[in-house]
Amino acid sequence: PRVRNNLLTIVGALIGSSGAILSYIMCVAMNRSLANVILGGYGTTSTAGGKPMEISGTHTEINLDNAIDMIREANSIIITPGYGLCAAKAQYPIADLVKMLTEQGKKVRFGIHPVAGRMPGQLNVLLAEAGVPYDIVLEMDEINHDFPDTDLVLVIGANDTVNSAAQEDPNSIIAGMPVLEVWKSKQVIVMKRSLGVGYAAVDNPIFYKPNTAMLLGDAKKTCDALQAKVRESYQK
Fold first, then answer.
1. For position 5, what pLDDT does the model report?
2. Which residues are catalytic?
């Protein structure tokens, strides 16, 4: 039967075109074709067809006090949030923390991966909602070259978008996917619930690199505690 409701037709067309645009943006960000994502998808086969590289070594865990010392000693900091920040609603304590650090003369910025969160732009909206200035929220292509000159990176609830296997392991199922090159900075603190894998179900070698420290636990509780302790340390 014919659809005689023009409004319904217009709304349907808008939804369809919006979905197509979002799909295109995400495919470009993952360096994959639409057919590859729909028919193959992540978690099935690697592009090179070989066995993924085995990760060796042990991870280093730190506590809140260690993290605060590292934050206080750093002059330049980049924060790379992921879906874990969205799920924990940790954008508000992080926004307060960034404000405090900026007032202390530190250079603090955010690095946003195009597919971080559940859709493109989700993290930008959440950070804006929490009052983070637009000029310190940068896209991956704008900030990737700055990591080697950065003292500290805070990875909050992100995994696949900062996975070095995308560049270092041609047999990884995410090989070739553009990622935030956080491991090139002097020090990295990864804040996440556990050492578990992300959406792509791929182990992350950066957890075991010598310049990476793991601060495990709920992102909201960890960010709240960090914000409170940093405030306390600057008030002494």
1. 80
2. 83, 118, 199
